[in-house]
Write a structure and sequence with these properties.
- It contains 12 helices and 7 strands.
- The chain is an alpha/beta fold.
- The protein has a domain of about 200 residues: NADP-dependent oxidoreductase domain (TIM Barrel, Alpha-Beta Barrel), CATH 3.20.20.100.
- The chain has a 7-stranded parallel beta sheet with strand order 1-2-3-4-5-6-7, with helices on one face.
- Helix 2 links the parallel strand 1 and strand 2.
- Helix 1 packs across helix 2, helix 1 packs parallel to helix 11 and helix 9 packs across helix 10.
- It is globular and about 50 Å long.
- InterPro entries: Aldo-Keto_reductase, Aldo/ket_reductase_CS, NAD(P)_OxRdtase_dom_sf, NADP_OxRdtase_dom.
- This is Oxidoreductase, aldo/keto reductase family.
- One of its GO terms (molecular function) is oxidoreductase activity.
Length: about 300
């Protein structure tokens, strides 16, 4: 799919989508580092509008064998080699505070080192809750290293980090941009899947079979609002994330998906529509499973 993915990348950038998020753990075995390699190639081969605004972000995994601050610096340098360019935003992929707090301290030191050494333009975190964020924030501040972003699993089916943990309020207080990953809940919010239609294979199939019956009220609400605004359900779901002050990062493997994502920009849901979606989402019995690495 490489050629099609290049076309997807080009379409996104030319339409103002300039942040691309990956991770050094995306691609294992014979595909080791493949995601970063492809993204580096796509950015290198792109020429046109918004080229100077490209921001390539990667997440550095807290692997068990990464035990020193130097290992984070080395990991980012390896990502840069795969990308063929410097990493703009380096992020700690997850916190080890729940099972190896001694490891996390060193890795966070290494993350701050990247900024101090001028190897990255900014640093961020992923899967951190407000309590843990507030515990580590002073250490970064003392070193004069701003935490630029924090990404969490956030969508109409995964409001837990914001509504229950209050992470958005804390990020706003600290000047941190909240990034919403999986804003379409693995595709459940697109309207593509139903109990009658074929479901994806593997673990997603089991998850979808469990969730689909109970989320019909939300899908119905999305469908109704989408119809009234002449948008798709996916575009409404992504726009809802934007309306909440987050930066959603939906995936796109095809031109059709990219065009649909782009169609979520340039307009706004009304306050009433957002409230209606909030109320329906809050009334559901089940929601998406949270990332096991999400801290409080």
């Amino acid at each position: 799919m490489d050629d099609e993915l290049q076309a997807v990348f080009n379409l996104c950038v030319s339409n103002g989508v300039t942040l691309f998020d990956t991770g050094d753990s995306y691609g294992t075995g014979r595909l080791n580092g493949r995601s970063e390699q492809l993204l580096g190639r796509f950015s290198s081969d792109y020429s046109g509008i918004n080229q100077e605004n490209l921001c390539i972000a990667t997440k550095l995994a807290a692997y068990p064998w990464r035990l020193t601050r130097g290992s984070m610096v080395s990991a980012c340098q390896a990502s840069a080699r795969r990308l063929g360019r410097n990493v703009d935003l380096a992020q700690m992929h997850w916190s080890t505070a729940n099972y190896a707090p001694w490891q996390e301290e060193r890795l966070l030191d290494g993350l701050a080192d990247l900024y101090e050494k001028g190897l990255v333009k900014g640093v961020g975190l992923s899967n951190y809750g407000p309590k843990r964020l507030q515990e580590i924030y002073p250490k970064f501040k003392e070193r004069g290293v701003p935490i630029t972003t924090l990404q969490v699993q956030y969508s109409l089916l995964s409001t837990y980090p914001v509504t229950e943990l209050g992470i958005k309020d804390v990020c706003d207080q600290l000047g941190i941009q909240l990034i919403a990953y999986s804003p379409l809940a693995l595709g459940l919010l697109t309207g593509k899947y139903s109990e009658k239609d074929p479901l994806p294979k593997g673990l997603r199939r089991l998850l979808f079979k469990q969730l689909l019956p109970g989320i019909q009220p939300l899908l119905g609400c999305l469908r109704e609002i989408a119809s009234s605004k002449e948008k798709t359900m996916a575009q409404v779901a992504i726009n809802w994330c934007i309306g909440k002050g987050t930066l959603p990062i939906p995936g796109a493997k095809t031109m059709k998906q990219a065009q649909e994502n782009i169609g979520a920009l340039g307009w706004q849901l009304s306050a009433g529509e957002i409230t209606e979606l909030d109320q329906v989402a809050a009334s559901l019995d089940k929601a998406m499973v949270q990332n096991i690495f999400q801290t409080r």
